[in-house]
């Protein structure tokens, strides 16, 4: 289910569908897309490239976007001039909307010294072709999901990006353009808050970031390179090296509070296996004062000094372990410290990239909420 909170590149989506179908994975009849989801057009990518390359941001760094047109598509949505997937049903009106949009973007790019080499009629026909192919998948996802839940079906929702990239609650302006917190599940799918019965937060056993923005616990030494190499920390879209650092408890506590987490899923524990020492950021120092809450201003967060508590490494492999009791004592101590400091139980620990390389702790809220097949390897 792709909800109304997502902006969709139909060409990229169809490419993925065709790839899956070509490998024997059936998609048609199993995937559904909201008729309210907004479309990403080629002019959105042109605008984003022009925006990132210009000097309009003054003293601020570039955001470091993926250049896929996502931000400008959300800008159009917020400005009430976006084009939605459901608009393609009325083809003549769709053509008019595309024509007006191309004219507007051409003027906007010209103001930044760029030219938009694009024929509106060609773009409209190309996108109508995409949308005709996708039409069997287009539904009112809000009505669909609420009917399924009324019938007693379990629904598992997965957000994109993370709390620190949320447009409201993240390290603004170094954020994405949508809601990446648990609250976004309601607005992005059209389901009421009282339908949500549990919220699990996913965090690596260390911290990473792609692109610019504040990162207090970043490690630019050889230890950070170990995290990057062992964790294969490269952007899935851009291939850029992710910035790597240590667990940041003020950030994790903030995320737990904003999202109302009742469970934690800790991933990539095995990446830490070879380290002699493992620092954990427990608080910050700024202008002579220490505090354990994350400041809301990106400029301040970028200048704080992290205060660390250092744990001895366990120096043995946790790769592929599936029982908590088999973890080295120091690994358990590390995890339990995080749990106690954040105040949220740990429900799952991943010890490798495969689904079965996970430790599922018994008796947690998450285990009770999810059907057994979802927790089974």
Describe this structure in words.
This protein has 377 residues and is α/β, with parallel strands linked by helices. It has two domains: 7-148, Adenylosuccinate Synthetase, subunit A, domain 2 (Orthogonal Bundle), CATH 1.10.300.10; 198-375, Adenylosuccinate Synthetase, subunit A, domain 3 (Adenylosuccinate Synthetase, Chain A, domain 3, Alpha-Beta Complex), CATH 3.90.170.10. Helices cover 35% and strands 15% of the residues. It has 13 helices and 14 strands. The strands form five sheets. It has a four-stranded mixed β-sheet. Strands 8, 10, 11 and 12 form a four-stranded mixed β-sheet that branches. A two-stranded parallel ribbon has the order 1-3. α2 (42-53) packs across α3 (70-78), α2 packs parallel to α4 and α4 (91-111) packs across α5. The longest helix has 21 residues, at 91-111. It is globular, with a radius of gyration of 23 Å.
């Amino acid at each position: 289910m792709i909800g109304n909170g997502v902006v969709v590149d139909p060409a990229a989506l169809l490419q993925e569908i065709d790839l899956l179908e070509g490998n024997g994975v059936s998609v048609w009849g199993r995937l559904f897309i909201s008729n309210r989801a907004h479309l990403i057009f080629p002019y959105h990518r042109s605008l984003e490239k022009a925006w990132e390359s210009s000097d309009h941001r003054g003293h601020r760094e570039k955001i470091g976007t993926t250049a896929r047109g996502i931000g400008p598509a959300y800008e159009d949505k917020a400005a009430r001039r976006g084009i939605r997937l459901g608009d393609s049903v009325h083809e003549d009106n769709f053509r008019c909307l595309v024509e007006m949009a191309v004219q507007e973007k051409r003027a906007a790019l010209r103001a930044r010294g760029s030219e938009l080499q694009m024929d509106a009629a060609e773009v409209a026909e190309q996108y109508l072709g995409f949308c005709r192919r996708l039409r069997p998948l287009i539904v009112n996802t809000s009505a669909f999901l609420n009917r399924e839940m009324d019938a007693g079906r379990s629904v598992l929702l997965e957000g994109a990006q993370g709390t620190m990239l949320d447009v409201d609650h993240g390290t603004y302006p170094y954020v994405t353009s949508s809601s990446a917190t648990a609250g976004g599940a309601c607005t992005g799918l059209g389901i009421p808050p009282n339908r949500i019965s549990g919220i699990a937060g996913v965090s690596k056993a260390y911290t990473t970031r792609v692109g610019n923005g504040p990162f207090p616990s970043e490690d630019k030494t050889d230890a950070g390179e170990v995290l990057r190499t062992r964790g294969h920390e490269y952007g899935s879209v851009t291939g850029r090296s992710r910035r790597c650092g240590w667990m940041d408890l003020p950030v994790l506590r903030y995320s737990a509070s904003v999202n109302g987490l009742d469970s934690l899923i800790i991933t990539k524990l095995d990446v830490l296996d070879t380290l002699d020492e493992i620092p954990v950021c427990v608080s910050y120092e700024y202008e002579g004062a220490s505090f354990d809450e994350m400041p809301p201003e990106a400029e301040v967060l970028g200048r704080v000094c992290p205060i660390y508590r250092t744990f001895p490494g366990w120096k043995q492999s946790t790769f592929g372990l599936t029982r908590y009791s088999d973890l080295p004592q120091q690994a358990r101590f590390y995890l339990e410290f995080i749990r106690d400091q954040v105040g949220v139980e740990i429900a799952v620990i991943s010890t490798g990239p495969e689904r079965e390389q996970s430790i599922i702790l018994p008796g947690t809220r998450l285990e009770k909420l999810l059907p057994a097949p979802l927790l089974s390897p």
